[in-house]
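dumping this here so i dont lose it
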């Protein structure tokens, strides 16, 4: 029987490290020409500078703007709001109660802008910026750590936000701007994406060690036509390849169990619950035998994809160049 899919949170689709977090996104501020944010934003820094010094001349010197410009900006700000923000005392000023209330919110808003600017500048820094990188679950234990270790030999301070997921979900995150690059299979073909084939993995028929085919080294897929299969869920690239290879061999696989990770499937095979078409494991799994498939080209292509026309920061450009330079030797021997 096919196991029921859980409606709860799937841990296998979560971020691999903590750089990407889940948070409630506030509603965007109105940016129409008539909105308060569009109307007031250019003058908020002037207001905060004068409020801090309580002196227009001194604030103009610190902010390196003409005093006349600063004075006009404050008058216009008060006119737009219809509220007096300052009480004038000759050359000095002091905040009114309304001004103090307004200043608290203005300082928070300006602080958020400052932090946002510093964050995006830091992420784009050539030496210590960040790369948001997605990859398949099956590449998480060995391939990706090895790639990052090799890349950081020349770029030791570049940071990574790593996301494990299946191919279609990663493509969605590319399109949403949440990922810079992803390693996926099959290699996508879409007008809004750029994809490059990097390598391929041979798929093996994995059977229990007491299976009737376990004494063989090679097998035709047609010899497993009557077997129960354990596979990844629909939507995963490896599931699509499994279905296509079985169809090419002249049968439709009888699915006993569906899962989200290749090593879980190997465990199900070891328990005698079916056979599976899988890429090689990072570490040999006891209880199973892995057979070479003959008569068909049983492989999955691995490629890197990114959003077409999306400008790269220097660290993303460097990592992309590194990956493209690994064509034909992306995967461990």
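and the seq i came up w/
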């Amino acid at each position: 029987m096919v196991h029921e899919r859980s409606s709860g949170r799937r841990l296998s689709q979560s971020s691999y490290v903590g750089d990407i977090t889940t948070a409630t996104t506030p509603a965007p501020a109105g940016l129409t020409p008539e909105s308060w944010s569009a109307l007031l934003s250019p003058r908020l820094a002037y207001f905060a500078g004068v409020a801090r010094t309580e002196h227009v001349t001194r604030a103009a010197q610190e902010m390196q703007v003409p005093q006349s410009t600063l004075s006009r900006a404050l008058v216009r700000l008060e006119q737009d709001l219809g509220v007096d923000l300052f009480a004038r005392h000759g050359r000095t000023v002091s905040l009114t109660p309304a001004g103090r209330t307004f200043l608290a919110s203005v300082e928070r808003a300006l602080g958020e802008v400052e932090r946002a600017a510093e964050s995006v500048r830091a992420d784009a820094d050539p030496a210590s910026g960040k790369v948001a990188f997605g990859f398949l679950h099956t590449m998480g234990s060995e391939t990706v750590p090895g790639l990052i270790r090799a890349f950081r030999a020349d770029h030791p301070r570049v940071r990574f936000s790593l996301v494990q997921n299946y191919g279609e979900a990663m493509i969605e995150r590319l399109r949403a701007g949440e990922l810079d690059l992803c390693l996926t299979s099959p290699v996508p073909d879409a007008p809004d994406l750029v994809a490059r084939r990097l390598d391929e993995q041979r798929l093996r028929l994995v059977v229990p060690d007491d299976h009737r085919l376990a004494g063989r080294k090679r097998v035709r897929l047609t010899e497993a036509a009557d077997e129960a299969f354990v596979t990844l869920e629909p939507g995963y690239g490896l599931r699509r390849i499994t279905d296509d290879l079985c169809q090419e061999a002249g049968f439709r696989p009888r699915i006993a169990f569906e899962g989200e990770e290749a090593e879980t499937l190997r465990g199900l095979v070891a328990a005698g619950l079916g056979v599976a078409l899988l890429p090689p494991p990072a570490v040999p799994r006891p209880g199973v035998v892995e057979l070479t498939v003959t008569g068909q080209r049983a492989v999955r292509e691995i490629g890197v994809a990114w959003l077409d026309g999306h400008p790269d920061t220097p660290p993303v450009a460097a990592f992309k160049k590194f990956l493209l330079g690994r064509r034909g030797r992306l995967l461990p021997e």
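Residues 1-28 have pLDDT under 50 and may be disordered.
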